[in-house]
Specification:
It is a single chain. The longest helix has 28 residues. This protein is of the alpha+beta class. Helix content is 56%, strand content 13%. It has a two-stranded antiparallel sheet with strand order 1-2.
Length: 160
């Protein structure tokens, strides 16, 4: 449907394009590709719709179209396991605390145990990377005994 509307709106340009002796197979292949990309975008919107239907975040696990999510929350869920993988390769003394919302737990677990899907989906999120490259930030708590406050000081920032 989206490809048909685009073709209708650009029929003059399409006529000029067709006069260049484009084969029917190439034209149909291009139209099918355009329809497929429009359909995937529609599936992403429907997956977002499922997430918004309840007061509780549905999440990737309980959303029937969770694998088609393409939004900022899913992008963040995709990046966190990469940072965790980076951290797991280090020799760290003491506890590691990761502060993240409970609503993201199912997606984080999924992407942690599905590295091939994570790699493939990372490629689809390349426009997000171009806008703002993801960074892993490591903080260290500092305790002020005079006031009793805990402050967090960034000790490392790295692109992932």
């Amino acid at each position: 449907m989206p490809a048909s509307l685009i073709a209708l709106g650009l029929r003059k340009k399409l006529g000029e394009f067709m006069q260049k002796k484009v084969s029917r197979r190439a034209f149909l292949g291009g139209m099918i590709g355009a329809m497929a990309s429009g359909s995937l975008a529609s599936l992403s919107r429907v997956a977002d719709y499922f997430n918004e239907q309840t007061d509780k975040f549905v999440g990737r696990k309980d959303n029937p179209l969770g694998q088609f999510l393409y939004n900022l929350a899913d992008y963040r869920d995709l990046m966190v396991p990469e940072a965790l993988e980076e951290l797991s390769g280090r020799e760290i003394k003491g506890p590691v605390v990761i502060i993240y919302g409970d609503t993201h737990r199912s997606a984080l677990k999924h992407y942690t145990f599905a590295p091939k899907e994570r790699e493939l989906k990372r490629k689809t999120y390349s426009p997000y990377d171009k806008v703002l490259s993801p960074r892993m930030r490591i903080y260290k708590p500092t305790f002020d005994s005079r006031t009793g406050n805990v402050d967090w000081v960034e000790i490392e920032s790295k692109s992932i």
